[in-house]
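Review box. Two proteins, two foldings.
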Amino acid sequence: MKKVVIALLGPIMLISQPQPHYWQQHVDYTMHIQMDVKKHQFTGKQTLLYTNNSPDTLREVFYHLYFNAFQPGSMMDVRSQNLPDPDGRVKDRISKLKKDEVGYHKIVSLRQNGQALNYQVEQTVLKAFLQKPLAPGATDTFYMEFESQVPIQIRRSGRDNEEGIDYTMTQWYPKMAEYDDKGWHPDPYVAREYYAPFGRFAVNITLPSSYKVGGTGYLAQAENYWQKADTLSEGLWAMNYLPGATQERTWHFVADSVHDFAWAADEDYLRTMRRGPNNMELNFYYLEGYAETWEKLPRYTKVFFEEMNQRFGVYPYGQFSVIQGGDGGMEYPMCTMLKGTGKLNGLIGVTVHEGAHNWFYGVLASNETQYPWMDEGFTSFAEDEVINQMRKEPQANAHKRAYLNHNFLMSKEGEAEPLATPADYYARNRTYGINSYSRGQIFLAQLRYIMGAEAFNQGMLNYFEYWKFKHPAPHDFITV
């Protein structure tokens, strides 16, 4: 019987890899950002080399303008005020923003290969009409100048969060939307999830030299900004900041094979660093008042990366930064923004969850808007598996909480919705949360029970290896 099974599985393993017709778009951003920290505004110059690897001729392109969501009357504002269970961090806060507290992106100019483009802006989406169609296989240069204002921190992005972090710069720049075999995905921003093409980012950020910056990618000439100081514990270094010689300085970051770029800045950041698996850098940026727990966090973060590498695939980048900022916990390529408060166990839990996103959101990068369970559910499964392994006495069922949440939802008449519901279309936040996180997690837990642990574990490694940097859809995972 084993020979028969192997004979049947052979072709399945072959077709689980991307086929010759598979394609994806490619982006190459170069951005120069000048911050005015008194006005909380910045000017930007963006050069984008966009390669059309699709078989289609493109006659229009779409950009996301995320900061426009933080204005009274925006779709995010209206949706929040009309949900039966709005996010407590948002509620009606956007509707109360003053002129100097809103967020915005104002486009000064937009050109394709030097030719000015006509465009339309509808809240968080810009549609540009191309002067010359972009043929299959062609690469065009899009140049944009823009002016932006950083909103008061409400959801993920913004300035002056409740813990005192000056800038959490996430979803902060005009960003080309994804185009795939389903067409364009210019989804309006209503505080849910993301989907974008992979590529290269070279980001130059100029601001007062007293500010310290951490985020996605690698800092060029890092030795001019930081140097090792004291050893805080075994393997953990405190890093001394080297202020610039002038009032302003520019931070140069580069990241390859990522689909977004995030950063945070504060004058009072402390930074520690330790080595993780494969000699990667684990960086931690936090305020002094949180040092007691944040100095203990790196040891657990190293163990987390070791477990994830073994169970779900090897992390492909050379650094990861845990950064105090934002409004809770949120993942970005090569970093996470999270609040610093709470006990050590809670901080470890959030770090593990947001870190695990870097496998499913960051590297596999399924369309989270369409299939949120492929990111949140798989991440929650990995989180509970790893944390359970880190316990002195692992629990018999690491996913008990997910089953309890599922049972709770099933007890609420009329609230259950299909797992295939797109993220922005749920009638309730609670249903979205249980479906995407808990029921997506249960899908993997039950699949392992059916397949057996050995086959399941190898399947998860195969899935990561075949589909990293390629935006897998549900049928791609099922085929593996």
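Next protein.
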Amino acid sequence: ERTGLTKLFTYEAAIALENARLVEKMKQTEAALQRHRDHLEEIVEERTQQLHETREDLLVAEHLAILGQLAGSISHEIRNPLNVINSSAYYLKIKLNTEDEKIQKHIARIQAEVQNSNAIIDSLLSLSGMKPPYKARWNLIHILDDAVEALELPDRIQLARYYPREEIFIEADKEQLYMVFTNIIKNAVEAVKDQGRITVQVDKEGEQRIKIVIRDTGEGIFPANRESIFRPLFTTKKRGIGFGLAICKMIVEKHRGNIQVESEPGRGTGITVILPITDKPGGE
């Protein structure tokens, strides 16, 4: 009788153990399925985001192609009358040779508007037909300093430069990067307006990349606009048509880098450009 009870208990214990194993296995299976579901959701979300970005890029490319065709066909017709207007303004300035401030002011306004119009045409042509960068080895600090000094910052704006002690060399198209930095610094000057500070800071990010941050103490950018500032034709300025930062983004990406913005209304804006460092010999 005891032997029978022992066998019964042993059998029930075996069943209980097997049930426990099955329950544990089911839990493990459910956990694995959940992990797969989460992973699939992540993949779907990632792919959806990539499709969205690709669609945005295709729309931008389509717009640029249309703008390029438009710019190429009308730039000559627009530049001719602009050149006539500019020449006439110059002739009047020389011929009148007057000290009348009102006349001088109006002639200067005509010449300034002609220059602005030509700049818009140049930006449009640059954005729609940007050539691949002609890369060589350059000292990054020299390009930055050239960009800063070319703008002749007004006395009301303080400028601070923070550079690493060692020389930083990059493989780049000097003229294109010069365009990037002058554009960003010019935007910073316009944002500061009456008085403020601009800092240009360069730091190594690991051994292969360099980070350039150009920061101002200006009015800042509202969150709703931050995602759009690198899109062609987007601008928050009263004047301008929104090509500058779009061109900057295009150039930086052609240099295997990236550009980012951080800003808060009333507390200024920082534009960060990250570029690869070169260890190739030669160049500058």
